[in-house]
Amino acid sequence: MFENTLSFARETDEKDPLAQWRSAFHHPVVDGQPLLYFTGNSLGLQPLTARKAVDHELNRWAKLGVEGHFSPEDPWYTCHKKLAGPMARIVGARESEVVCMNSLTANLHFLFVSFYRPTGERFKIISEAGMFPSDRYLLETQVQFHGFDPAEAIVEVGPREGEHVVREEDLLAAIEDCGEQLALLFLGGINYYTGQLFNIRPLTEAAHRVGAIAGFDLAHAAGNVPLSLHDDNVDFAAWCTYKYLNAGPGNLGGIFVHERHGTSFDGPRFAGWWGYDESKRFLMQPGFQPIPGAEGWQLSNPPVVEVAMLSASLAMFDEVGLAALREKSVRLTGYLLYVLQEEFGRRPELGLRSITPEDPAQRGCQLSVQLGGTDRAFFDRLRAEGVSADFREPDVVRFAPTPFYNRFEDIWLLGAILRRLLEEQQ
Ligand SMILES: *Cc1c(COP(=O)(O)O)cnc(C)c1O
């Protein structure tokens, strides 16, 4: 099905129905050389339309001043609302279930205020071992805030001895084991380190069976794989938009609150005026009355320039459709796996290998390569050759070819560089 040749890569690119999208992005050039960019999982490239969208808002600010908030055309006052439709399509939600606000870690803390409400009997959180550090700190400090000991309250489920990814059966067993002590199942949709995609629906069901809440950090899943948060009955989720969603460094996060909570939530929340019933917001009265749905969790008025960049990017997702992106992604990452296996196979004694599940249903576009008998210096040499990948302690390099702007040729080129470096490797 695949061939590790330049002609095969080029022919595949020529037949790729999404090939023209590559030129809709700026491609970084270092020392006169375009980078082989495999770091869309860290920071997505800039769409050409971003600058125009930003200029448009800067011009309006210059011309309109405060009048921009309520100008008849595209008022800033409601500018975040235009994100809800496209964002809901990305995560498989109803429009009223999503809102874009703040940033990821902050949003998770706010969602935990509402959805992690431990009692003396039910206080445990199950997560996957090796979570992104920010999520780990979130869990530790939330648990401590409620007066519990992280060592007792946080149950981490890791890979079995000699394995690299977590077995779903082990997560299900841990949920059963915790039973009535389980307050919250909290997982990355895709683990940032191994690239493992969790099966959201059965895990959510299992959490619900023991009376717990199911929440997900979708930083590495949103815009990477199709999601169906509403139908999967997920309670809450949050994600960032600067990775696969190409919205620019540090741009707004997204949250999901299932409508069964959103419409009639009487639990705690930390509120701000932007979550307040819009018809009465400017009466400036005490007594918080939330907007029904996810918007009721908003705190502050949205940053207009960030919204403009995010909106420009989401418009591209709507135009292409996540299904078409995923179809190419499965093939592109399949090709990467094939090329890596062939190149690493030339020096088996070094033990370089992908630790990401090979089954496309259990991963997104990222492959995580364990450096085996090589070390960090090997990664530094890759960098010097113009390959943008990233190194994560202790010994993994992550490659994330994205269907929007990576070519099959990029992967062949990476293979050729790896071959040369591996020949030189002692
Ligand atoms: C990228 C990432 C973050 C980053 O959090 P910010 O609050 O946006 O800085 C957090 N968690 C995970 C799993 C991530 O992948």
Task: Give an account of the 3D structure.
This protein is of the alpha/beta class. The chain folds into 2 domains: 145 residues, Aspartate Aminotransferase, domain 1; 265 residues, Aspartate Aminotransferase, domain 2. Helix content is 37%, strand content 13%. The chain contains 13 helices and 15 strands. Strands 4-10-9-8-7-5-6 form a 7-stranded mixed β-sheet, with helices on both faces. A 4-stranded antiparallel β-sheet has the order 11-12-15-14, covered by helices on one side. The protein has a two-stranded antiparallel sheet with strand order 1-2. The protein is globular and about 70 Å long. The two termini are 33 Å apart. The model has no long low-confidence stretch (mean pLDDT 96). The structure holds pyridoxal-5'-phosphate. The site of pyridoxal-5'-phosphate has 12 residues, from helix 4 and helix 5.
Summarize the helices and strands and which ones pair or pack.
Layout: H1 6-15, E1 29-30, E2 33-34, E3 36-37, H2 49-64, H3 81-91, E4 98-101, H4 104-115, E5 124-128, H5 133-145, H6 150-153, E6 154-157, H7 168-178, E7 182-188, H8 200-209, E8 213-217, E9 236-240, E10 253-257, H9 259-262, H10 304-320, H11 322-345, E11 353-354, E12 367-370, H12 376-384, E13 387-388, E14 390-392, E15 396-399, H13 408-424
Parallel strand pairs: 3-13, 5-6, 5-7, 7-8, 8-9
Antiparallel strand pairs: 1-2, 4-10, 9-10, 11-12, 12-15, 14-15
Helix pairs in contact: 1-13, 2-10, 3-10, 4-5, 11-13
Bound molecules: pyridoxal-5'-phosphate.
